[in-house]
Amino acid sequence: MAQMAFEPDKVGTVTVNGKVYSFRRVHWHAPSEHTINGEKHPLELQMVHAAADGSLAVIAILYKYGAPDSFYFQLKRKLAELAADGCSFGEENAQVALGLVHLRSLQKRTGSYFRYAGSLTAPPCTEDVIWSVVGKIRQISQEQVALITALLPAGGARPTQPLNGRTVQFYNPPNSTISFKV
After folding, report:
1. Strand-pair category, 138-140 with 56-65
2. What is the DSSP letter of 152?
3. Which residue has better confidence, 168 or 82?
4. Which of 11, 165, 169, 178 has a Cα at 20 to 30 A from 91?
5. Helix axes 142-149, 76-84, angle to 10 degrees
6. Who's near 41: CB < 8 A, 6+ residues apart?
7. SUPFAM superfamilies annotated for this entry (predicted)?
8. What is the distance between the alpha carbons of residues 167 and 118, in angstroms, rounded to a whole number?
């Protein structure tokens, strides 16, 4: 799995239902693991957060093809270095020091999001994870997706799962932006 990991308690936090979760890592899946109205997207970014008690909250951002995304400009050279490493992803870990990465461009707030309690999408598939899927689908260039997917194992996305009685709530505060049909 291609991921960027961060030192605990050094990057930021998110509060969900009164509990504070510290940002730990980001990773990608292609195509997206989440769907909106049954539609998959070429890429999904997942930002994993952990609370002091070990519980997890994940924020997912879906991407469609379009204009380049500013967050990925700062990763371009490092992603190319990792892809050139030649290791067998899934069997070995390749690492590259990224240096300073500005995450602010990921914080383009839309206000709207979907929330449900689910599980991690990769082993060990831990249950009781709080998922928040951002309601605005971002744009990313095909070149940027290609740089990321070069690092992902084939079949790097879990198929869409049945709800199994789970409730998905949609939060859409006034003046929020969404990019799908409601």
Report:
1. parallel
2. S
3. 168
4. 11
5. 40
6. 31, 32, 62, 63, 64, 137
7. Carbonic anhydrase (SSF51069)
8. 10
Cβ partners under 8 Å of residue 116, min gap 6: 131, 166, 167, 168, 169
Residue 19 has pLDDT above 90, yes or no: yes
Q: Is the CA virtual torsion 124, 114, 41, 58 positive or negative? A: negative
- For 27, counting Cβ atoms within 10 Å of its Cβ (0-12 exposed, 13-18 middle, 19+ buried), the class is buried
The dihedral region occupied by 145, where left means phi > 0, alpha psi between -120 and 50, and beta the remainder, is alpha
Distance CA 143, CA 7 (A): 29
Q: Which amino acid is at 108?
A: K
CA distance 46 to 153: 16
Cβ pair 90, 2 in contact under 8 A: no
Q: Is 128 inside a domain boundary?
A: yes
* Partners of residue 56 on adjacent β-strands: 50
CB 69 within 8 Å of CB 141: yes
State the residue range of the domain holding 143. Answer: 3-171
Domain count, the chain: 1
Q: Which amino acid is at 42?
A: P
Is residue 116 assigned to a domain? yes
Q: What single-letter DSSP state applies at residue 155?
A: T
User: Is residue 181 situated within a structural domain?
Assistant: no
Q: Is residue 88 part of a domain?
A: yes
SS3 77: helix
